[in-house]
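Hey, can you fold this one?
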Amino acid sequence: MAREKSGKKISLQTVERMSLYRKVLEDLHRDGVANVYSHQLAELVRVSPAQLRRDLASFGSFGNISKGYPVYQLILTISRLFGTDTLQNVALIGAGNLGRALLFYRGFEERGFHIAVVFDIDAEKIGRVFAGRRCHHIQDLEAVLPDFGVAMAILACGAQNLQSLVDRLGRAGIRSILNFVPRQIHAVAGMNVENVDFSAKMEKLSFLNRYGTALEFEI
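Sure. Predicted structure:
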């Protein structure tokens, strides 16, 4: 459960749905839509209108019955709730193929996140500039991080000594990690971790290809 500053508890499922609402609202805004009714937005995100109204009501009062929700204002409101109405600096650990792809991914900045600093252990990458960011040696993590004011990090590195790296990041002030490394890590006290496992997603899709969405299957 997440907790608002007012003390109200908000489920993580609600937070995830709010992120989806913002994504769809941004699509509507790009299409020139000024207002959207709850049943229309609910249909686009595949939730019930009642669920959508409950989620939004958790954070305040939005829109009205006659005009619906003002699309652009709701985008701004959700962005402020997430703290992404201004760019947040993020550290990237790993400048390999995946790391460099993430550096060039424009979606991060569109959603309020800027990869400001890069670290690696490969001597051939240290000192080089990738997509406008200079790559630093991981040994210099504690010395370099404070210059960029980051509280979030993306792991796109190798699995060797991964937990030790996570511990160092925690001591250096990193409070949240997006982990692309296919290895379980243990968050230090006060740290949030989101794991992105491409292989697991592919396995799920393979399972669905084979068995469909049935809850019962034969092996």
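The CA atoms of residues 24 and 45 lie 7 Å apart. Let me know if you want another pass with a different chain boundary.
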